[in-house]
């Protein structure tokens, strides 16, 4: 905690107050009254995102409505060297939208219009503040939907999805945000408007579109996004399998993929997660199981029928004690209900929990599950595992009580160890939640100094003054050399 | 031509000769005898790539065998400020591997080993000089293949595919190189070894992997590539449809995609291309047709059966005068035979031809085909159209005779006009052949000065001294301001 938790400058610090007053005057010159928030109670709701352990009051908050306003805000901040943190719905889990006491918080909440939806070309052109699910809702009447579906999809915005390269249950088959965005427009720190990508399949020049997606608000502020829409599959069916052993379930995942099947979703929960979910939503899960797999298949009628049979056989052959197949859509949704409410369910059985996000090659699943259980024992902290098993994206939930002395610190240390275990087996420290402020130390484990230097050089190519979301995503060499000296830290030399 | 054709420095220029001698001495310090080529007749085979209208002798050629040798070569060139052009098989069509008289040509031909093939994880780790088709050949015994299939796949290498982000007939369904590469290792201009991506689904930090793919050898030298392998589909079947009108065929393409079908390939040829192909390989094409569509479907038996019926109905409804369905694999391959030999077939009926590569939104197909015909008329040059219709990637072939005064110049001008037409309808100037030296002027039409500045900044973040493949891909502001003053040039302000 001590390494990460930022220093706080009081909101009423005289120097900050003077800077704030000057900026507000300049901003009101081109922004309407309601687009600048400057009082403590007004800026308070923006002090944190979904990683609420970290909080900081921003210098002030701006809520522009037009691209031109965003350009003028960034130009002003550039002239005056004021840092800027952009924010969508604030559902991020790695602190990417944590403000700076001395910086502006730029909310894109008012960029909430769908500008174009072309069912023939199967694209939607939207503003960044449009909610993920709102795109699908607008596309449904045309038999289309937007595939990436983070669990926060009711609330999270497409701009935030671009910043974090968000995934979801369906990304195993349909890809991450980067695979579903065709083009975007952003404003550079100097206030220039830049278009990346195109509605055509490929684009000339360096692939800055893919570079930009997942760059966590550090390269520019997105003001428009063009996404691909997909046709709704003819049929979807789910299987639920119970196991007496977590590693067996891990091996079943490998067997399904090896058989040439790409499920629309392939999710796993371990004993503590099953118990918590069942107590909460009564989905009818077998509560004596050590692990549960949920496998959803979609496609044509025939294809789904064949694959359901095949998966059922694979699950039984891999040692499942019970396999259920959904007989209708209501049952399919019930299978998912427990999984989808696993996070709040765990929230009910523990004062606090900390959601991790590591990604590993699928073959390492059994080993990582075993080592995580050992680490949980070592630290005396319960860990519930809920994850996108098909693509090796783990979400271990560490249960703790922040009122107990040291528990938050031990939790963070255990979390760090789990992430470093992911790196050690050839995986990465984030699947879909981003690095933000949360995993900045583990970046020192994931990457060599040369690799980190390359990241900084790319950052400087977009934002030479370092004004966009400073302190997030890419650690400084100094932070890394400090972190590498800690006794618990892994290393990559 | 005059704007592009580079100045030539004679191979025996005294200053070049002195630099060459010094470099050879230094290189022989750590490279074996056969890894350095310095005589005219030795370097001559490297004077051009597939865009043979442009030729330049390199200062010398190096053929390293190990990663360490590549690092030492780049370090030496960095110390002495010698430019480096990397080369795979030299099949590129945009002059990306055209050497510099004052620079080293670095051939990766000896990096031709498949390092690992894991059928369970469905990945192959290969050296960059491995041929595209060799990966599929190695994977076939496991029921797997590597999806991107440029028409040069017998010869072209995966390193070159990474440089150009190559596509092929199957990229409509299975994506470009960027969608099929999981990780790579490259050597920076300073000789550092950097890994990008991972075998896991996502990677932390900026997405430099996607940025690197398609960067045309300007950001680093690739020394290892990890690719995804896909299971061979159970069944593939093709349909051949003839049309009396090119625009009708264009609309049929839109209708197939709008119906929710993603063919494994959806290709189109116009009258002149059909005629040339039929005269050459006698595939049995209806030679009186104004346009031909070839649509391949793959997947499970049932899925293909259903889609073949659906596509057949769509083709007939869209005005096809004839629709054939392949009854077996031999017939399917015969359908493809004419398409696959279209380029050499056109080569037989014209002394020279120039292959373009633009990409447009599918809805613009009919309009672009009509405007291309008008331009062909205006310039008095025949144009045969052969292209990946499903993803809007056009390959107009301009037929000319370089022995006629002015014909090459007029051809290049017509080519430029066609590319600018692609930009005007919302497309891009390259689909899969890259920019290289060929399309550098059209980059000024595609991008604004601000966007080009951003490209240069990214280039500088990888290669601050500009030693890797200088003069390719991204035009300088000066070249663009000169080009924009030409009377025929389009513009993007």
Describe this structure in words.
Chains A, B: This is Glycolate oxidase. Two copies of one chain form a homodimer. In chain A, a hairpin with a 4-residue loop joins strand 18 (383-388) and strand 19. The first copy, chain A, has 17 helices and 19 strands. Chain A has four domains: 14-107, 2-Layer Sandwich (Uridine Diphospho-n-acetylenolpyruvylglucosamine Reductase, domain 2); 114-231, Uridine Diphospho-n-acetylenolpyruvylglucosamine Reductase, domain 3, CATH 3.30.465.10; 235-344, 2-Layer Sandwich (Alpha-Beta Plaits); 349-484, Alpha-Beta Plaits (2-Layer Sandwich). By secondary structure, the first copy, chain A, is α+β, with helices and mostly antiparallel strands. The mean pLDDT of chain A is 91. At the A-B interface, strand 9, helix 7, helix 8, helix 10 and helix 15 of A face strand 9, helix 7, helix 8, helix 10 and helix 15 of B.
